[in-house]
Design a protein that fits this description.
Layout: H1 5-16, H2 26-32, H3 36-46, H4 76-83, E1 91-95, E2 101-103, H5 105-110, E3 113-121, E4 127-135, H6 137-144, E5 152-161, E6 164-171, H7 172-175, E7 180-183, E8 185-186, E9 189-190, E10 200-203, E11 215-221, H8 234-239
Parallel strand pairs: 1-11
Antiparallel strand pairs: 1-2, 3-4, 4-8, 5-6, 5-11, 7-10, 8-9
Helix pairs in contact: 1-2
């Protein structure tokens, strides 16, 4: 479908004014989500993808951080890891990397740590503020050595939907954003199971369903083709959620 020049300008102006949390202009939505190549380039052009999400004070934290999505993977493999306090858990880093990694919680703690108090905005209609801590995803990917052909980062999780592991993806802009971290701590304590233990993604410029929980594997890939149904994530593939859920 062709988008008229006037509609293109209206949609672009809305985004440049900072209205990417809830995109009201139909033309803007068509532009941003009309295809992998098109929306990837236009998002970068129209929205400041490097801007920082707001951070808050300890006093502003919510009294309770409710879980989004799965509360417990409930599989035998996850139950065994949980019973051992995740001592045997390893996060595999692979795909288009020069140095595949297998990281324990201790290994993650050996990276430089980032702590941030941010607001989680859930597509279910609730928000909460909490403190998260962990290494930046960018530092972990640098340690693995991202190869030139990589364009996306795919996350595979311990929780299952329809008999298959949950999955999500982001591009390299979000992957190397300074607030994108592999969080193992919530409010200065190890992650509770309902919030994604032992490690979850925090990608603070996106809605909650992009923050994959119960991480088991991270892969650098050249394309989202062959990942699920090709739209980049479970909800994108099955419920038609937008792949780019920027806020």
């Amino acid at each position: 479908m062709m988008v008229g020049r006037r509609n293109l300008m209206v949609g672009s102006a809305a985004l440049l004014a900072g209205c990417d949390k809830v995109i009201q202009q139909p033309a803007a939505r068509r532009i941003l989500f009309m295809g992998e190549e098109m929306h990837r380039g236009l998002q970068r052009a129209l929205v400041n993808r490097n801007a920082l999400a707001p951070e808050f004070t300890p006093e502003q934290r919510s009294p309770f951080f409710r879980p989004n999505g799965t509360r417990d993977p409930g599989t035998a493999d996850y139950a065994a890891l949980r019973a051992g306090n995740f001592a045997d858990w390893r996060l595999q880093i692979g795909g288009l990397v020069t140095r595949p990694l297998s990281l324990s919680l201790k290994d993650l703690g050996a990276f430089a740590q980032r702590a941030q108090i941010t607001r989680h905005d859930c597509v279910e209609g609730w928000s909460a503020i909490a403190k998260w801590q962990g290494p930046t995803l960018g530092d972990v990917l640098k340690a693995a050595g991202i190869r030139d052909g990589a364009r996306y980062i795919v996350f595979t999780c311990a929780d299952q939907y329809r008999g298959a592991p949950y999955y999500e993806s982001i591009d390299l802009v979000d992957a190397f954003h300074p607030q994108t971290i592999l969080a193992w701590a919530l409010n200065d304590r190890f992650l509770p199971v309902m919030n994604g233990a032992p490690c979850r993604l925090r990608v603070e410029r996106q809605l909650g369903y992009k923050h994959a929980k119960y991480l088991m594997r991270i892969d650098a890939v050249a394309s989202l083709d062959g990942i699920g149904k090709g739209k980049g994530g479970y909800w994108e593939d099955n419920v038609d959620y937008d792949w780019y859920a920027g806020i």
